[in-house]
Design brief:
- With 83 residues, this protein is mostly helical.
- The protein folds into two domains: 1-30; 32-83.
- The chain has three helices and no strands.
- It is elongated and about 60 Å long.
């Protein structure tokens, strides 16, 4: 292996360790990005919609599904803004 390949490999390993440690830090302190917060909100709304539909309250389920679609749209727009 050539020396530049070694340094490239070490650089990749360093970045992976750095990313892992930052994710660990965020998880410990509950730090979330706006997209992660929206995704968490979306999961909660989808669960409510599922439970409402399961209980036979289709109006309430429809309301929750409508809210879920709006949140999904917001997430997509936020991700487009990152690029």
């Amino acid at each position: 292996m050539k020396s530049w390949q070694n340094s490239d490999l070490l650089f990749k390993i360093h970045n992976q360790i750095k990313e892992y440690s930052m994710n660990w830090f965020k998880k410990i302190f509950g730090i979330k990005t706006p997209v992660e917060r929206k995704q968490q909100q979306l999961a909660a709304i989808q669960e409510k919609a599922f439970q409402a539909q399961r209980n036979g309250d289709l109006r309430l389920a429809g309301k929750y599904f409508y809210e879920a679609v709006a949140i999904e749209t917001e997430i997509v727009e936020m991700l487009k803004g990152r690029q």
